[in-house]
C-alpha cells in the first residue's frame, strides 16, 4: 500500500519526461530544417566524422563560392541596368536611392553569408545543446513556440511554392518576346528576369532562415529563463514549509548552475551569429532610411532599369512593401533579442530577495554573489558584432534614430516645397512687373 503512491509518482515523472523529450525532438527538427536551408548556401548544417567532415567541407565551400558568384553576377547586371538608365536622364535621385538600397541589401547578404559560413562550424552542436537544455512545465507553455515554428516553416515553403512561381509567371508573360541587355549582350528578357528573380528569391530565403533561427533561439532560451525564474520563486516561497537549509541550498545551487549553462549557450550562439546579425540589421536600417527618403520626396523612378525594374505601380507597391518589411524586420530582431536579455536578467530580483534572508546558507550566498557578478560583468544578451548590446535600451535608441530621421526628412521636404513655391511666386511677380512696364 505504501509503494502505490510512489509508483504513480514515478509513472507521472516518466510521462512528463517523455513529453519533454518529444518537445526537444520537435525543436531539433525545426533547427535541422532551418540549417538545411542555410546549408544550401555554404553554412555548416550537420556534424560528422573526420572523413565526412572533409567531404562536407569541400561541398560546403563549393556551395558558398557558387552562391557568392551568383550574387556578384546579380550586382553586376543590376549596376549595368542602372548605368544605362541614368545615362538618359539628367536627374536620377529616386533611381539612385532605389539602386543603393537594393544593391547594398544584396551585397550585405553575400558578406553575411561568407562570415556566417566561416563561423558556423559549431552551430549545429550549439543548436542541439539549446534544444537538449529545454524543459517545459506543460504543453500550454510550449504551444506558442510550436505555432510560431509551424508558421515559419509554412512561410519558407510559401516563398518557393507560391510567391516565386507567381512572380516569375507574371514577369515572363510581361516580357515575352522582348530582349534585354545582359552585360552588353542581347538575350531574351525572360532569361535575364528569371535569373535575377531566382537570385533575389534565394537571398530572401537565406535571410528568412537566418531570422527564423534567431527568433526560435531567442524565444526558446527566453522561455527557459522565465521558467527558471518561476522555479526560483516557487522554491524560495516553499522553503520554509518543507525544506531544510541544506536541501534548500542544494536545490537553489542546481537552479543557479542551470542558469549558468543557459547563459553559456547564449554566449556561444552570439559568437556565431553576432557578425551576420549586425550586417543584416545595418542593411535593413539603410533600406528603411532610403525608402523613407524616396516616399517623402514623392518621386517615382525617372527612368526604367531595363525590363526588370520598370517604375510602374507594381514596382511602387514593391517599394512600399520593402519599406514596411524593413521596419518589421528591424523591430522583430530587436524585440526578440531584448526579450531574451530581459528574461535572462529577471532572476536578479529573486536572488536579491534570497540574500536578504538572515538564515541563508554560506555556500548558497557565495554562489549567488558569483552569479550576480557574472551577470554584471558578462550580460546575457546578443550583440551586434560585439559593438552594441541588443537589450531594451537598444530598442528605444533605434526607435529614436528612426523617428529623428523621419522628422528631418519631412522637414527638409517641406522646406524644399516651400522654396519651390516662393521661387514660382517670385518668377510670376517679376513677369507681372515686366509686363506692366512693357504695356
Description:
The structure is a single chain. With 439 residues, the chain is mostly helical. The longest helix is centred in the middle third of the chain and has 54 residues, at 189-242. Strands 1-2 form a two-stranded antiparallel sheet. Strands 3-4 form a two-stranded antiparallel sheet. α2 packs antiparallel against α3 and α3 crosses α6 (189-242). The protein is 82% helix and 3% strand. β1 and β2 form a beta hairpin.
Write the layout of secondary structure elements.
Layout: H1 3-39, H2 50-86, H3 93-119, H4 123-132, H5 139-174, E1 179-182, E2 185-188, H6 189-242, H7 245-297, H8 313-345, H9 348-355, H10 362-377, E3 383-384, E4 388-389, H11 392-438
Antiparallel strand pairs: 1-2, 3-4
Helix pairs in contact: 1-4, 1-5, 1-6, 2-3, 2-6, 3-6, 3-7, 4-7, 5-6, 6-7, 6-8, 7-8, 7-10, 7-11, 8-11
Amino acid at each position: 500500500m505504501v509503494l502505490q503512491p510512489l509508483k504513480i509518482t514515478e509513472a507521472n515523472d516518466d510521462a512528463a519526461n517523455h513529453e519533454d523529450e518529444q518537445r526537444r525532438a520537435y525543436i531539433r527538427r525545426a533547427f535541422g530544417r532551418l540549417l538545411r536551408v542555410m546549408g544550401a548556401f555554404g553554412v555548416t548544417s550537420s556534424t560528422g566524422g573526420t572523413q565526412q567532415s572533409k567531404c562536407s567541407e569541400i561541398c560546403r565551400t563549393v556551395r558558398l563560392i557558387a552562391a557568392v558568384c551568383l550574387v556578384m553576377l546579380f550586382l553586376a547586371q543590376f549596376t549595368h541596368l542602372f548605368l544605362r538608365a541614368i545615362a538618359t536622364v539628367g536627374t536620377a535621385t529616386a533611381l539612385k536611392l532605389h539602386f543603393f538600397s537594393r544593391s547594398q541589401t544584396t551585397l550585405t547578404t553575400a558578406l553575411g553569408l561568407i562570415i556566417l559560413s566561416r563561423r558556423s562550424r559549431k552551430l549545429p552542436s550549439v543548436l542541439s545543446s539549446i534544444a537538449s537544455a529545454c524543459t517545459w512545465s506543460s504543453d500550454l507553455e510550449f504551444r506558442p513556440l510550436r505555432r510560431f515554428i509551424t508558421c515559419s516553416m509554412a512561410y519558407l515553403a510559401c516563398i518557393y511554392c507560391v510567391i516565386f512561381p507567381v512572380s516569375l509567371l507574371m514577369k515572363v508573360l510581361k516580357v515575352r518576346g522582348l530582349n534585354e541587355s545582359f552585360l552588353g549582350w542581347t538575350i531574351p528578357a525572360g532569361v535575364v528576369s528569371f535569373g535575377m528573380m531566382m537570385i533575389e528569391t534565394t537571398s530572401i530565403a537565406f535571410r528568412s532562415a537566418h531570422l527564423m533561427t534567431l527568433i526560435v533561439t531567442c524565444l526558446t532560451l527566453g522561455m527557459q529563463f522565465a521558467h527558471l525564474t518561476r522555479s526560483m520563486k516557487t522554491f524560495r516561497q516553499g522553503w520554509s514549509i518543507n525544506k531544510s537549509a541544506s536541501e534548500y541550498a542544494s536545490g537553489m545551487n542546481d537552479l543557479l548552475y542551470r542558469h549558468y549553462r543557459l547563459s553559456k549557450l547564449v554566449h556561444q550562439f552570439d559568437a556565431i551569429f553576432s557578425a551576420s546579425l549586425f550586417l543584416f540589421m545595418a542593411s535593413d536600417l539603410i533600406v528603411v532610411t532610403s525608402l523613407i527618403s524616396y516616399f517623402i520626396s514623392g518621386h517615382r523612378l525617372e527612368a526604367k532599369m531595363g525590363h526588370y525594374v520598370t517604375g510602374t505601380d507594381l514596382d511602387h507597391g514593391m517599394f512600399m512593401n520593402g519599406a514596411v518589411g524593413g521596419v518589421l524586420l528591424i523591430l522583430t530582431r530587436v524585440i526578440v533579442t531584448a526579450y531574451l536579455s530581459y528574461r535572462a536578467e529577471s532572476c536578479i530580483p529573486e536572488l536579491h530577495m534570497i540574500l536578504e534572508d538572515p538564515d541563508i546558507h554560506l555556500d548558497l550566498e557565495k554562489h549567488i554573489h558569483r552569479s550576480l557578478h557574472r551577470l554584471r560583468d558578462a550580460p546575457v544578451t546578443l550583440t551586434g558584432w560585439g559593438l552594441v548590446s541588443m537589450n531594451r535600451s537598444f530598442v528605444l535608441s533605434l526607435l529614436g534614430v528612426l523617428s529623428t530621421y523621419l522628422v528631418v526628412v519631412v522637414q527638409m521636404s517641406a522646406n524644399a516645397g516651400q522654396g519651390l513655391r516662393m521661387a514660382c511666386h517670385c518668377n510670376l511677380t517679376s513677369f507681372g512687373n515686366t509686363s506692366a512696364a512693357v504695356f
